[in-house]
Amino acid sequence: MSGGTSVRLEPYEVALLRGGPRAAVTVAALALQLRGLVDAGRPGRIRATRAPGTAGATGATGAPSAGDTGGDRPAQDALDALPALDALPETVYAALQRPASFPELEARPDVREALSALRAGLVAAGMLRSLPPRRTRAARRALRALRDGHPLPAGRKGLSEDDVLMAVALYGEPALSVLAARFALRAGLIARAEVADKGFHRRAPRGGGTGGVMYSCGGGGGGGSD
After folding, report:
1. Contact by Cβ (8 Å): 128, 139
2. What is the mean pLDDT of each run of 10 residues along the chain (226 residues)?
3. Distance of alpha carbon 93 from alpha carbon 60, whole angstroms
4. Which of 94, 118, 96, 99 lies closest to 23, judged by CA?
5. What DSSP string runs through 46-80?
6. pTM reported for the whole predicted model
7. I need a labelling partner for 211 at 20 to 30 A (CA). Which of 35, 165, 167, 197 fits?
8. How far apart are CA 187 and CA 177, in angstroms?
9. Which residues have C-beta within 8 Å of that of residue 193, sequence separation ≥ 6?
10. Half-sphere exposure of 74 (CA within 13 A, CB side)
């Protein structure tokens, strides 16, 4: 999220505004999975995996994770060689050196601290009220603008990584069922029945766009609540 009078919301921030901490952690984990840094392990669990070194794996280098070697340095080397990760996915990757379910992952202290920092940034930007914790009018306007620019996709074809993350941030399980069904099912994020149900595709227009929106939050950022 950029500073000043204009704010560009990242997918993790959009997810937190829409669906709370679990939604933000889901988007962070999916971002890592798209880069080949994590994958579903045993049913209902997720783990760090070897960073791929082949072409087509965005920014990855082939360095092994700590789970492969029993140490922390290789996992950090994999992160260091990537284009800069935001704080939340970087923290999630570090936490997943020990496999976890999503509830366990969300409860880990470092992840909770990163979520608190994400929330504090949104409060400072006028997107959230701290007491009581809820979205502001500016946040509701931003979410409406993002939904207008990023309709629920009917499929993955033609979507960038940012498009996928923003769709999941905005729509949650329906987008996961379309764009990352295998990972979401194995990681316990969606039920098998949801993957089979394609009824929502009938109302899904063509997706598109990039991973953020610019808008002014000056003057009206702190007013109103849900």
Report:
1. yes
2. 65 96 96 94 88 37 38 57 77 95 96 96 94 92 95 95 97 96 93 54 40 40 42
3. 13
4. 118
5. EEE-PPP-STTSTT---PPPHHHHSSSHHHHHHHH
6. 0.73
7. 197
8. 12
9. none
10. 18
